[in-house]
Design goal:
By secondary structure, the chain is an alpha/beta fold. It has a single domain (21-218), classed as Uracil-DNA Glycosylase, subunit E, CATH 3.40.470.10. The chain has helices at 20-27, 62-67, 74-85, 120-137, 147-154, 193-198, 202-218; strands at 53-57, 93-97, 104-106, 113-115, 141-145, 168-169, 186-190. The radius of gyration is 17 Å and the shape is globular. 43% of the residues are buried. Pfam families: UDG. Keywords: 4Fe-4S, DNA damage, DNA repair, Hydrolase, Iron, Iron-sulfur, Metal-binding. One of its GO terms (molecular function) is deaminated base DNA N-glycosylase activity.
Length: 222
């Protein structure tokens, strides 16, 4: 049986996009992996180019896929609240995902779309877009929201439980040297807000997310 391979997004990334808007326009036509076939649209990152904090999630969800914007569903609303409680300025933050298309499995009735975790091949195929975003943003702090985002940045052995509560120097490893950030930038790992929504002890996990974001805020300068 033939093994399906992903071409990757690099051929769709413009050499000189000029701006985040230029990248967003190019990403709308990305066919670098098979996920575009079932998704409604590409969901690119959002926020100001002067953002000092970049929050990186896994992939858009059902609401994000339909609306074409990241973190606008229930998890995004929770994240906005946590950002405010942590003392970060939401207007100074850029939010994005390692995978820009929604991966899902439709129910038998077709009325619901069940989130599916992107696999390693799909993550690697989409990483050129994140690399291009970071090359324009030059953030001081990168926040990996959940294990998929962290593995995309640091490799398959990285875990949130093994990295939380520590501001890692960036680049924290040479796993993805093309992922560029400002000199002296820091990386922080924390839980994805959707994990908070699913948790039995939601309050405790939410408090941990806020504490992690406060640590991110403490690393900002200027």
């Amino acid at each position: 049986m033939a093994v399906r391979t992903e071409r990757g997004a690099q051929e769709y990334v413009p050499d000189d996009p000029g701006s985040i808007e230029g990248l967003r326009a190019a990403a709308a036509h990305c066919r670098g992996c098979h996920l575009y076939r079932d998704a409604t649209q590409t969901v690119f990152g959002a926020g100001p180019e002067h953002a000092r904090v970049v929050l990186i999630g896994e992939q858009p969800g059902d609401v994000e896929d339909r609306r074409g914007a990241p973190f606008v569903g229930p998890a995004g609303k929770l994240l906005d609240r946590a950002i405010a409680e942590a003392g970060l300025d939401r207007a100074d933050a850029y939010v994005t995902n390692v995978v820009k298309h929604f991966k899902f499995k439709a129910t038998a009735s077709g009325k619901r779309r069940i989130h599916q975790n992107p696999n390693r091949t799909e993550i690697v195929a989409c990483l050129p877009w994140l690399a291009a975003e970071l090359s324009l943003l030059h953030p001081q702090v990168l926040v990996a929201l959940g294990g998929t985002a962290l593995k995309g940045l640091l490799g398959p052995a990285a875990t949130v439980s093994g990295s939380r509560g520590v501001l890692l120097p960036w680049p924290a490893s040479a796993h993805r040297p093309e992922l560029f950030a400002e000199e002296g930038a820091r990386l922080l790992a924390t839980v994805h807000p959707s994990a908070v929504l699913r948790a039995v002890d939601r309050d405790a996990l939410y408090d941990g997310l806020v504490a992690d974001l406060r640590l991110a805020a403490s690393a900002l300068t200027g």
